[in-house]
Amino acid sequence: MKKTRHAALAALRPVAAALGLACTLGAAQAAGYPDQPITVVVPYSAGGGADNAARIIAQGMGEVAGQSVVIENKGGASGSIGAAYVARAKPDGYTVLYDASAFSINPVLRKLPYDAKKDFIPVSQAVSVPNILVAATGSAFNSLPDFIKAARANPGRYTYASYGPGSLAQMAAELLKKDAQIDVVHVPYKGGAPAIVDVMGGQVDVYFANAASSLNYVSTGKLKALAVSSAARMPDLPNVPTVSEGGVKAFDVVEWNGFFLPAGADPQVVAKLQDLVQKALARPETRDKLAKLGLTPVGSSAADFAKFVDAEQVRWAEVVKTNNITVN
Fold this sequence. Notes:
By secondary structure, the chain is α/β, with parallel strands linked by helices. It folds into 2 domains: 38-128 and 255-323, Bordetella uptake gene, domain 1 (D-Maltodextrin-Binding Protein, domain 2), CATH 3.40.190; 130-246, D-Maltodextrin-Binding Protein, domain 2 (3-Layer(aba) Sandwich), CATH 3.40.190.10. The protein is 46% helix and 19% strand. It contains 11 helices and 10 strands. It has helices at residues 2-31, 49-65, 80-87, 102-109, 144-153, 168-180, 192-200, 211-219, 267-282, 284-292, 302-323; strands at residues 38-42, 69-73, 95-100, 120-136, 159-162, 185-188, 206-210, 223-228, 254-262, 296-297. Strands 1, 2, 3, 4, 5, 6, 7, 8, 9 and 10 form a 10-stranded mixed beta sheet that branches. InterPro entries: BUG (IPR005064), Bug_dom1 (IPR042100).
């Protein structure tokens, strides 16, 4: 019996040694992170809002880290194709997901090839930007209360645009429908540009447009701003009230971008990547470039970002259930 036990222990020693060596190597690799190029996967097409922001931040990260930070676009299926790619990647910190608000919306609307909560580690919220509820300059609506009053008096008559089913533009309008108790019809477009064109032309009544893409139209008088979706007024539009000020209390919706790692990443790597993002976002040149896109740098901690992402998903799940929203 003793010989058998000794033999078993002897057989386990190489395994234990191998495991110990692996842990030591893993810790050493984490301590030296990053010591090779980082690939940031943007699950949307090149030239879009998320891609433009990611490239600015990646440049700052590369300069801070002294390593190349490369952007790789893997668009399609509202961001889920690129997210699925990162979920399957080696969790060594060198394949990173840069996703947007859709990350919290997709799980409550679509069947996904990954679990958003279990397969990713939120690292840091990068930027945020409010939406502006816009209407044509010739619209009869001069304020959000005007629109709500008309919509309540004429259920199903008025329309709102979005840049696609399941987009934050749709979710913001659906939240407004729920909280203001109005019935307006969704008109989805294949992008923000055609949505803005039809709102300008009066074919659609209102649109929660991304501030980065619509601020110039508002500033030049090509669109009328009825309200902003954030909790506070926008510095660039100090005279435009928030949705909450328009009578829909506690309304606070912003589009956001953030960094994620595949589940299983070493906590040291998560902390180092968080630090790298925060330092990049603290650089004046990075902040200036983002500001020109209408974006506000955030640079949150991994813990705060995780809470934020979870809260977003809970909120949109409630809206989807209450308003009975489905997508094809």
